[in-house]
Each structure stands twice: as structure tokens, then as C-alpha cells.
């Protein structure tokens, strides 16, 4: 869980982890030099449950480096992600890990819904696709707080230091080794829509998508144009 100036929301995220019916977890919070009381909030929870680990970066470095540090520190078989302002349903880990074990999947996501800054549901649900290969993932990115991959079977993955869409770059790396992303079509997480968040202004992400397709994935000019156009139509204009 990368964290930066999230004192208002990280308590909700941590409570959703503490409420999990699946008990064999650790949560690693990597604080990107928050200037608010994020550290105080986390430490209060860490004092009552030693499965909560807190690490503070030496300097503000961005979400990519914070994610990479958390992945480096993780020791479990499964690596899951939860943004500091999102929340999980109580059965999220139990249901998703059972889904992976029963089907021998190494890379999965779930459906999720949207909540506002006060935690009120916005009546918008994003249904996970049953399965996606690399080409499918180029068109549709899973919800970051829904993804789990099996680090024992396919290894750990680290991401380049880009400010936005760094989670997306990770999933594109994972699927090259896992071959498929499988979706559990049950809403087990909530994404918080915040006016000041990095992802709130979707049109600003167009240049980052272009960077992912052309510079990182090395796709052709025409395929990159098509994918950016597809993303704008179906995501920015909210046609799906």
C-alpha cells in the first residue's frame, strides 16, 4: 500500500484489511514522505496488530518507487494491492485466494464499485472480464485494488519510475509471464473517487497511455494510436 497524505482515508483502508475473513496476511504501508498525519494513523493500527508494517521512504519519490519497495519487502506467496484510499469487502482475500487455488490461477482480479470521498456508493460497478490475455489487457486495465498474483509461481515484478499508470505497466509485465488474467465476477473492492487524486482527471492520462504503449511496450505507432483512441472513447467518455 503506497501512501501519501492520506490521513483522511487510510484508516478506512486498514480497517477493511483487519476485517478480512482470511487471516494469513501482512500489510506493508510505504509512506512516500507524507506531510500530514498519515504516519500517526498507521502507527495506531500497527500498535494493535503486528501484521501491519510501516516503512517511510527517505525522500518523496512517487507511487512507483513506493510500490516497488513494498513488493521488495513482501514475503508471502500472494501479492495483493490496496490503494490507501480504497477499501476491500470482508471476504475479498478469502474468496479470491480460493478462486486462485481451486483453478490454479496465478494472476486474478475482481469486480469493484465506486465510492465518493465520504464512502457513499456512486451506483457504478465495473465487472471484471472472465479472462484477458495481453492484447485484452492493453484495452482494459483491472482495478488496482482488486489484483492478486502468485509471487511463488511467477516471481515478483517491479515497475519503472513513472508518475501515472505505473500499476498498469506492472500488470502488462505480469501477464507476459502468467499468460492470462482471470476475473472473479464478484464486487469485492471499492475505488474511492477523489477530486484531487492523480487519476481523477482522466484526460490528463492520455499522454501517459501513449508513453506506456510506445516507449515501454514498444508497440507500433498505429497500434498505439488505436489503443489511445479506444481508451479515450471507452474510459474517458465513460461508455463502459
UniProtKB/TrEMBL annotation:
<feature type="transmembrane region" description="Helical">
    <location>
        <begin position="221"/>
        <end position="239"/>
    </location>
</feature>
<keyword id="KW-0808">Transferase</keyword>
<dbReference type="Pfam" id="PF00535">
    <property type="entry name" value="Glycos_transf_2"/>
</dbReference>
<comment type="similarity">
    <text>Belongs to the glycosyltransferase 2 family.</text>
</comment>
<dbReference type="InterPro" id="IPR029044">
    <property type="entry name" value="Nucleotide-diphossugar_trans"/>
</dbReference>
<protein>
    <submittedName>
        <fullName>Glycosyltransferase family 2 protein</fullName>
    </submittedName>
</protein>
<dbReference type="GO" id="GO:0016758">
    <property type="term" value="F:hexosyltransferase activity"/>
</dbReference>
<keyword id="KW-0812">Transmembrane</keyword>
<keyword id="KW-1133">Transmembrane helix</keyword>
<keyword id="KW-0472">Membrane</keyword>
<dbReference type="InterPro" id="IPR001173">
    <property type="entry name" value="Glyco_trans_2-like"/>
</dbReference>
<feature type="domain" description="Glycosyltransferase 2-like">
    <location>
        <begin position="1"/>
        <end position="127"/>
    </location>
</feature>
Amino acid at each position: 500500500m503506497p501512501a501519501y497524505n492520506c490521513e483522511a482515508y487510510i484508516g478506512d483502508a486498514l480497517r477493511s484489511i483487519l476485517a478480512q475473513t482470511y487471516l494469513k496476511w501482512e500489510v506493508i504501508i510505504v509512506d512516500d514522505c507524507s506531510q500530514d498525519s498519515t504516519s500517526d494513523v498507521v502507527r495506531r493500527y500497527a500498535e494493535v496488530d503486528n501484521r501491519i508494517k510501516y516503512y517511510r521512504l527517505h525522500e518523496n519519490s512517487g507511487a512507483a518507487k513506493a510500490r516497488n519497495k513494498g513488493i521488495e519487502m513482501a514475503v508471502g506467496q500472494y501479492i495483493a494491492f490496496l490503494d490507501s484510499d480504497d477499501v476491500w469487502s470482508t471476504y475479498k482475500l478469502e474468496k479470491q485466494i480460493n478462486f486462485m487455488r481451486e483453478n490454479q490461477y496465478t494472476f486474478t482480479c475482481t469486480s469493484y464499485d465506486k465510492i465518493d470521498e465520504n464512502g457513499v456508493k456512486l451506483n457504478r460497478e465495473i465487472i471484471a472480464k472472465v479472462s484477458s490475455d495481453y492484447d485484452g489487457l492493453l484495452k482494459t486495465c483491472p482495478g488496482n485494488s482488486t489484483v492478486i498474483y502468485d509471487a511463488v509461481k511467477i516471481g515478483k515484478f517491479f515497475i519503472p519510475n513513472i508518475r501515472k499508470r505505473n500499476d498498469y505497466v506492472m500488470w502488462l509485465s505480469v501477464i507476459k509471464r502468467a499468460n492470462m488474467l482471470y476475473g472473479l465476477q464478484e464486487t469485492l473492492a471499492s475505488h474511492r473517487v477523489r477530486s484531487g487524486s492523480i487519476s481523477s482527471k482522466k484526460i490528463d492520462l492520455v499522454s501517459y497511455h501513449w508513453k506506456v504503449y510506445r516507449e515501454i511496450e514498444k508497440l507500433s505507432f498505429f497500434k498505439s494510436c488505436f489503443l489511445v483512441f479506444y481508451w479515450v472513447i471507452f474510459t474517458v467518455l465513460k461508455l463502459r
